[in-house]
């Protein structure tokens, strides 16, 4: 190890995986172009180690404006395996879309066909729906995606029925109710909407955002 003498003592200079980059370069946000350059152009497999990628992202973050977050978050949140190929990722997402539709359909049918569930189940779902409703309507409205109430509320019994809603708030509600179906043991916990909102704002695809949230 090299040693460096500083005002506060002598330190070893650790040869990090990203050591070929200067500190200034490491602190620049990762762009979509840089991100794509880490993958084989034919197979789509990552040509670096996951630790090298995480090290680079840790120091520089991800560019907020060029779409790289939409790609990188799926790896960082565990939706895609770091060692997967382009074809494998396509198959994974196709399968997960189907699973999302199945999960969403399950609770939707249960809410419509009340005769197929017990009173206790109906009350539990009603309580969960109300908790989700309240939290989702507290979502940061400074984010353009969630600003305004430009469509009528679909539930006349909702405390927000007169205020109205917007399509993206309704998507958040559906995703969180679907998570209830996916993980009934946990159910909805206050603040989950705040975790899901930025993922959905980046992905703008309910199935993709759902699995990122699960991760």
Automatic annotation (TrEMBL):
Keywords: GTPase activation
Keyword Ribonucleoprotein among record annotations: no
Domain Rab-GAP TBC: 63-215
InterPro entries for this protein: Rab-GAP-TBC_dom, Rab-GAP_TBC_sf
Pfam families membership: RabGAP-TBC
Protein name: GTPase activating protein
Organism for this UniProt entry: Cryomyces antarcticus
